[in-house]
Design goal:
This protein has 186 residues and is α+β, with helices and mostly antiparallel strands. It folds into 2 domains: 87 residues, MutS, DNA mismatch repair protein, domain I, CATH 3.40.1170.20; 90 residues, Trna Endonuclease, Chain: A, domain 1 (3-Layer(aba) Sandwich), CATH 3.40.1350.10. Helix content is 35%, strand content 25%. The protein is built from 6 helices and 10 strands, in the order αββαββαβααβββαββ. It has a 5-stranded mixed β-sheet with strand order 3-4-2-1-5, covered by helices on one side. α3 packs antiparallel against α4 and α3 crosses α5. The N and C termini lie far apart (62 Å).
Length: 186
Amino acid sequence: MIKEEKTQKEEKKIVKATFAKERVLTENSDAARDLYNQGRYGTLLEDGKVQLSLLETLYLVEKNRVRVVDGRNKKTNVEKFIKKAQKVEPNFWIRYCVFKDIRNRGYIIKTALKFGADFRVYDRGVKPGEDHAKWIIYPVHESSTLTWYEFAAKNRVAHSTKKRLMIGVVDEESDVTYYEIRWMRP
């Protein structure tokens, strides 16, 4: 019984991370590497630290898995972190709503900049590197518009990368509705 309690406490250890420009670097610890190994958060660096994106960091802060400090080792609160993140990424909140929703549904979501999309999403149970992503996702606000050329370009990117195209539409209440788009032959 005592061994089980100890294991649960170890799993919930809060990882200290430092906000550095556009990224967040964790401490060099087993708990930080567990974030990467178990949930594929961030990128594992050679020095044993994990580099997290701003989206991953906010998600892990909300889940009470990460505590963020600035360069002077002073704790950063959530509101201050969001303001800094929005300066770096103007579309941060819309992207975060989609990121959080996908993660809460049990999928692994990573950036897809090399594919020309915002995110790539792996099917449940699949980790990056083990297999390919199933979808690419573009987050948009419900009031934004998309031209047919932009829409066709997104569809072409998905088709050429052999992934399904999904549009994540975020409403005023920060709820997300997904639309999957596929090529069809008549």
